[in-house]
Specification:
This protein is of the alpha/beta class. The protein has 6 helices and 7 strands, in the order H-E-H-E-E-H-E-E-H-E-E-H-H. It has a single domain, classed as Collagenase (Catalytic Domain) (3-Layer(aba) Sandwich), CATH 3.40.390. The chain is 39% helix and 15% strand. The two termini are 18 Å apart.
């Protein structure tokens, strides 16, 4: 009996350390662009603008949006709107603009809107912009409209998730939407348990500018750690 109890404690402790390290990497790291040592997030309602997207992209984006909105239900307001290319709000402050454009074709579009230049081989790409108070002010997303159905759904969800603030991939937890390590990458089309938790942590427990220590303290208060 003593052996079983000790084994359980060690396993739980390991899981806790792993998930804290994962959350810190995802919330403080940066897949592209500027690095930072503080949390960034939106402080006003999040408004997605989907620009002149074909029907299959609209559907993938709407499915992703439903998951994100459901996760943040009664926590933070998310809105989505399909717009034409002439809409004056495209790329402006206060919006996450989603382009149904393959990154390899989007370099000029990215330059025009102040986004990071997309990697030509990527399925999707995102850029987040924040102010000196670490508040997200705008974001831009590119999703390749010619991806097969599964990868289109995965890519739309991952880019939209990361545009909310958890802006880094991590090799630590394979069940996460943002799992990536070496030559291996995930292809989930649903948010993992840790992904849902980190969004709620970010918008319920944390403030823009919070540090790694604040993340760990918040997790000790509200995070449901795995027990395996």
């Amino acid at each position: 009996m003593t052996v079983l109890i000790v084994f359980g404690c060690v396993s739980s402790s390991h899981s806790s350390r792993l998930e804290v390290a994962w959350a810190r990497a995802v919330l403080l790291g940066s897949e592209v662009g500027d690095s930072r040592d503080a949390v960034v997030r939106w402080t006003h309602p999040v408004r997605f603008l989907v620009v002149a997207a074909p029907g299959r992209v609209q559907l993938a984006v709407e499915r992703a949006f439903d998951q994100l909105r459901g996760t943040l239900h009664n926590v933070h307001q998310l809105e989505l709107e399909h717009v034409e290319e002439s809409d004056a709000r495209i790329g402006q402050d206060g919006f996450i603009t989603v382009f149904a454009t393959a990154p390899r074709h989007a370099r000029e579009l990215a330059r025009r809107h102040g986004a990071q230049p997309p990697v030509a081989t990527a399925d999707g790409w995102f850029t987040i912009i924040w102010n000196r108070r670490y508040e997200l002010t705008r974001a831009l997303i590119f999703v390749d409209p010619d991806l097969n159905e599964h990868w289109l759904r995965h890519t739309a969800l991952e880019e939209m998730f990361q545009a909310l603030g958890p802006g880094n991939d991590s090799p630590r937890i394979r069940d996460s939407l943002v799992f990536e390590g070496g030559d291996s990458a995930g292809s989930h089309t649903r948010l993992g348990h840790v992904d849902e938790q980190v969004l709620r942590l970010l918008y319920c427990e944390l403030q823009p500018g919070d540090s790694a220590h604040a993340i760990e303290r918040a997790m000790r208060r509200s995070w449901r750690f795995a027990r395996s």
